């Protein structure tokens, strides 16, 4: 039997939480793992060397944006995203399914696919399951995603029903069109906040026997309780011997909560977007470097952190100054810190799982992070 291009070996469990190793054509990655988003072929402000120093395992790219600019053919001729961007580690690309949600005012959905009006020049482009599969084969990530629709949380039951069934048909077409043996195509479970629809989507998606599965359509406006409730229904029913990917979670507390439910991989723009607004993630909670309390604070951003921003000796006062003056160094340093912080959180979670103490460790960690010193309210919204 041919070994799949991407596979996971689960090394330890603590309840539903899993610690494992994800094998890909471009290397092995310890899980749980956070995947920073490089929408247009770059994690904003960071070089591949920065990402390696932060301990990043997998980087994301976005098919919609890369298809429009610079174009899949340019990327293919450069040797795929790995050659084009200089990042030699594992990569994953979204199919453009998130843009079906986020650009709802600029698209029309039919059984054939999705017609988009380009955000760049107003031109029209028709994304079919076959097209997005072919484009992702040209982009060359280790993991490609099927084309799906991510409906808003408040969509009607009928809308969710029609959408998940169309997504299942699209997934089948994506699988039929996919031909790269050195690339894994992951399926996506939808169904909104309806348990029976989630079960239907799960069964239809797993029936197609993908090498990995994502849970989509959550973290899109529903409450955290609703999100976790749906994930708790789906995650344990996904094949235990295949990677599990939660799409769109990036806050530290949320990451730990989805790991507790059996998720191996997750992504979000939140850590990098927060950094561009001057917000840093620390072990004592999120802080806003624009706040006056940091102007004269000569202490480190996060004591004990080994990222460049912390280990070089930059103080909160200096970083606050850079943020306030809109210096280009500010988003780079804070982005590097936030990405490193999330990576270290995943490594600590992995250790706690392997030691069989994840639930207790998670509770203690969240209590500290969400304590009174956390500056959750930001002057500038992310």
Give a structural overview.
With 382 residues, this protein is α/β, with parallel strands linked by helices. The chain has two domains: 7-268, Queuine tRNA-ribosyltransferase-like (TIM Barrel, Alpha-Beta Barrel), CATH 3.20.20; 275-369, no CATH class. It has helices at residues 48-53, 63-68, 72-77, 80-85, 97-102, 129-139, 157-177, 195-206, 224-234, 252-260, 270-276, 308-311, 316-324, 329-354, 358-369, and strands at residues 7-14, 17-24, 27-31, 33-36, 59-62, 91-94, 107-109, 114-117, 124-127, 143-145, 184-189, 213-215, 244-247, 265-268, 279-282, 285-288. It has an eight-stranded parallel β-sheet. A three-stranded antiparallel β-sheet has the order 1-2-3. Strands 7-8-9 form a three-stranded antiparallel β-sheet. The radius of gyration is 20 Å and the shape is globular. It starts with 6 loop residues before the first strand and ends in a 13-residue tail after the last helix. Residues 377-382 have low confidence and may be disordered.
Features:
382 residues, alpha/beta, TIM Barrel, 2 domains, 8-stranded parallel β-sheet, 3-stranded antiparallel β-sheet, 15 helices, 16 strands, 40% helix, disordered C terminus
Structural class: alpha/beta
* Amount of beta strand: 15-25%
Q: What's the overall average pLDDT, rounded?
A: 95
Q: What gyration radius follows from the Cα positions, in whole Å? A: 20 Å
Tell me, briefly, the overall form.
Answer: globular
Quaternary form: single chain
Distance between the termini: 47 Å
CATH superfamily of the largest domain: Queuine tRNA-ribosyltransferase-like
